[in-house]
Structure formats: C-alpha cells, structure tokens
C-alpha cells in the first residue's frame, strides 16, 4: 500500500466521506425539484437508496481498515482507528433510527437492508483484493474511494437487472428503481460491463487453451515464447470482440429495449445533427494530436518537471471539454464513456503485454508518469478523465446549478493547474514544512477558478440560462475546494472535483 504523507487519518476519513457527501448534496439538490414537480419522486427515492448503499460500503471498508490497522504501532494509525471506531458506533445507530422512522413496510425494509449489506460485503472483498494485488498503487483513502465507487456502480447495474426480471411480486416491493434512464447511459454501462468482465473471459480462455494443449500433447516440447505471445494476442482480441459484440447489445436490450446493436445506435446518433457533432470530433482530434505530439517530444528532450508537463494536459482538458459542455452536453457524456473505455483497453494491453501494442503503449505512458503511479498500474490519466467526467455525468437530469457540470474542468483544468504552476515558479510560503504546496499557489488557484466562473456565468446568462448560483455560496465552494487541494495528500484528481461538485450542488 502506497504510504500516505502526514495526515494519514485525515486521508482515510476523506476517502470514506467523499462519495456519501456527493450523494447527500445531490439529494439536497433533487429535493428542490420535488417542491414543483412531484414526478421526480422515483428518481429521488432511488438516489436516496444509492446514498445509503455507498455509505454502508464506505462504513464497511472503514471497519475493515480499522481492524487491519490495529496491528500497526504507528500513532497516525491509532488516531485513524479511534476516528473509525467512532463512526462505526454512531453510523449504524443513525441508520437504524432512519429506517424505523421511515416505516415503508416490512418487505421493503428487509429487502433494502439485505441489498445494502451486500454492498458492504462486496466493498470489503474488493478493497481486500486491491490491497493484496496492487499494494503500491494507492493510499488507504484512495482505495476506499475506488472500492466504494465500483461497488455502487455495479450495484446500480444489479438494481436495473432486478427491475427487469419478472417476480411474482412487483420489483418495486424489493428496491426503488429510478424512473428515467437515458440511452447514452445504457450504452456506457453496457460497454463498461463488458470491459469489467473482459479479464475474466480472457483469463478463462487462456486456462482452457492451456489445459487442452497439455491434455493433447503432454510429451511435446513447450511452445516458444514468441508463439505464446501471438496466441495470447489472438485470445485477447477475440475475447474483446466477443465482449463488445455480445455482452453490450445484451445489456442494452435488457435495460433499455434497444432493437439495434448499440454501436449502430451510436453511429446514427453521431451522424444525426451531424454538422455540429462532427465539427466537435474534428476539433477534439486536432487538439489531442497536436498536444500529445508536442508534449511527448518535450518530455523526451527537455528538463521540464513531469508534474508541470502533466498540468499542461489539464489545460488541454479545458480546451477539449469546455465547448462540448456548453454546446453538446449529451454528446460529451458519450465521448467521456468512449474515452474511458479506450483507456481501459489500452491499460489491459499494457499490463498484460499484448503483442504488438503492449510495449509501445508502456513506453509511451512512462513518459508521463510520476510518483503517484506504480509499476503495476498507471492511474493518473484515469483520474484526470474521471475527475472531469463524473461531475458532468452526475449533473444529468435535474440541475439548477449551472456550474456543476464544469466542476471537474474548473477544479483540475484551471485551479489545480494554476496552483501548481504559480506555486512552483513563485511560491515561497509553504503550508507545511514537509509539503511542497504553497500559499501563493493556493491563492492563484482560487483566484483563477473564480475568474473562470465569472466568465462562464456571463456566457450562460447570455445564452438564456436562468442562473440560480449565488456568489457567496460560489465563493465558499471555490475557497474550500482550493484549501482541500492544498491540504490533502490524496490523489487530488479524484477527490477535488467530487468535493467541489458537492459544494456547488448546495
């Protein structure tokens, strides 16, 4: 497990409270629509269930970590254990008190309890797997965020499957289901489900192939290394093709009733109203090509620190995503999903050294790694993409705060970038003796985000958007997220956008 810098207990608590805070803020935001539109009660009830699911997941993981860390004599660990035990005692009491007061009926309460307990057990199993298989890839706080987020996402898939199955009793008697689902969301979930199952399909296929080869030719010579790589390559790409061509349409047909293959639907979607979307695609390709070619050359030839080089990619993210959020928000949701799927496939190819791209991808990605990455996994590009994508995805549907879709772009692309650059070049006063972050950098980050917000609000107001964001609440949100970026030792690409989004929802 990657070692936390000073403040390990605060990092663990930050990881355990980030997703519940986001869900709670989203609940507060959705509660405002219920005053005028009672049709949103199904979405609110389902989001409420997701809040409790992620809370139970984080609580279960926190309990596991507390038990795991009692063996350590470290003072920081002892403090973390005390805070964790306090949460473990208080949270279940609040949870039981909530359900006793709610009183929706015995069957619903019991089914919800079982559903939530499954989330907690799955989160503990997942974080245990992360600690064993990837011990140097993340801190405890980051591992909590990843495990609880994955379990929540997979739990949402499970809830959709249960809602489509025919029981003798209505599915709503077991769990609340969201009232509306978008086609783009269904396609993204189908692709990610196929890619999550791809390692299982690939490894199983290799084991079956190895067993058949051994049983057929036990006395023959071993297969050459080059031939074995080619066999693995064929098995991987066949497994990928099977996953995308069979699992994805099966999912979309089940949850959304697609009559055509989802990739055909995506093709039709892109070329409907094609002028603006194709122009946006051409713009993205141009910016990505120029930036990657330029920055890769700089990383090989200059002495520029990699942390600053990576911040240039944050600025590129602003150039890429900002126009799409304003003019094509739905298309951007689809593009985020496609980019994340491509990242997953390339990372699998790199880690498993799939011929012939494995070595090329590994060599290219090493040019942009730093201390946050490990030899096993390179996660920085994932965190940057998800940091920009998650606030946009969560803002779909009702959204009375115009800046929430920009939370990731503002906090990472502008605030974090300016804080790093100004702090590196002009920073003198440091927040702590051991840390590198400076007061000047934090001030620059907060100021730059406020300036960008004023420009965005003016653009949105000129386009006819009815603004409901108060400047005082915006100032508080920007300041608190900036101070959190300066204080936390966790991966800020993952935590800061979520916390900033949570504050903007209020």
UniProtKB/TrEMBL annotation:
Transmembrane regions listed in the UniProt entry: 12-29, 49-70, 82-101, 113-131, 143-162, 182-202, 234-254, 274-292, 312-328, 334-355, 376-394, 406-424, 444-465
GO CC terms, sorted: endoplasmic reticulum membrane
Gene Ontology annotations of biological process type: dolichyl monophosphate biosynthetic process; pollen development; pollen tube reception
Main enzyme class: transferase
EC number(s) stated in the UniProt entry for this protein: 2.7.1.108
Keywords: Endoplasmic reticulum, Kinase, Membrane, Transferase, Transmembrane, Transmembrane helix
InterPro entries: Polypren_kinase
UniProt key word Transcription regulation: no
Record-stated family: Belongs to the polyprenol kinase family.
Protein name: dolichol kinase
């Amino acid at each position: 497990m990657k070692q936390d810098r000073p403040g390990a207990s605060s990092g663990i608590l930050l990881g355990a409270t980030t997703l519940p805070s986001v869900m709670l803020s989203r609940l507060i935001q959705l509660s405002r629509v219920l005053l005028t539109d009672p049709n949103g009660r199904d979405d609110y009830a389902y989001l409420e269930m997701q809040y409790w699911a992620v809370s139970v997941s984080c609580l279960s993981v926190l309990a596991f970590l507390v038990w795991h860390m009692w063996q350590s004599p470290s003072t920081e660990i002892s403090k973390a254990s005390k805070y964790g035990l306090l949460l473990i005692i208080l949270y279940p009491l609040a949870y039981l008190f909530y359900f006793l007061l709610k009183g929706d009926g015995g069957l619903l309460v019991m089914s919800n309890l079982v559903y939530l307990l499954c989330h907690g057990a799955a989160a503990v199993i997942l974080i245990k797997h992360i600690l064993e298989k990837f011990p140097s890839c993340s801190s405890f706080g980051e591992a909590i965020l990843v495990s609880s987020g994955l379990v929540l996402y997979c739990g949402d898939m499970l809830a959709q499957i249960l809602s489509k199955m025919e029981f003798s009793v209505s599915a709503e008697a077991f769990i609340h289901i969201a009232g509306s689902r978008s086609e783009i969301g269904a396609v993204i979930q189908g692709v990610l489900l196929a890619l999550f199952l791809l390692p299982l399909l690939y490894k199983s296929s290799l084991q079956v192939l190895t067993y058949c080869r051994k049983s057929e030719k036990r006395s023959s010579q071993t297969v050459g290394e080059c031939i074995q790589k080619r066999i693995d390559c064929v098995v991987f790409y066949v497994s990928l093709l099977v996953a995308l061509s069979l699992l994805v349409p099966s999912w979309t047909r089940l949850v959304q009733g697609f009559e055509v293959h989802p990739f055909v639907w995506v093709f039709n979607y892109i070329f409907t109203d094609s002028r603006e979307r194709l122009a946006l695609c051409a713009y993205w390709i141009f910016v990505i090509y120029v930036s990657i070619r330029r920055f890769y050359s700089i990383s090989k030839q200059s002495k520029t620190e990699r942390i600053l080089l990576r911040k240039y990619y944050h600025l590129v993210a602003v150039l890429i995503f900002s126009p799409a959020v304003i003019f094509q928000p739905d298309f951007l949701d689809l593009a985020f999903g496609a980019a994340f799927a491509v990242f997953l496939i390339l990372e699998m190819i790199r880690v498993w050294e799939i011929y012939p791209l494995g070595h090329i991808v590994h060599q290219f990605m090493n040019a942009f790694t730093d201390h946050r990455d490990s030899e096993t996994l390179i996660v920085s590009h994932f965190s940057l993409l998800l940091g920009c994508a998650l606030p946009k995805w969560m803002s779909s549907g009702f959204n009375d705060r115009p800046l929430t879709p920009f939370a990731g772009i503002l906090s990472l692309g502008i605030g974090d970038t300016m804080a790093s650059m100004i702090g590196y070049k002009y920073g003198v006063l440091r927040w702590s003796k051991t840390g590198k972050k400076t007061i000047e950098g934090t001030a620059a980050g907060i100021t730059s985000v406020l300036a960008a917000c004023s420009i965005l609000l003016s653009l949105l107001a000129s386009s006819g958007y009815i603004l409901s964001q108060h400047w005082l609440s915006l100032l508080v949100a920007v300041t608190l997220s900036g101070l959190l970026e300066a204080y936390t030792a966790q991966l800020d690409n993952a935590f800061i956008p979520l916390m900033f989004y949570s504050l903007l929802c209020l």
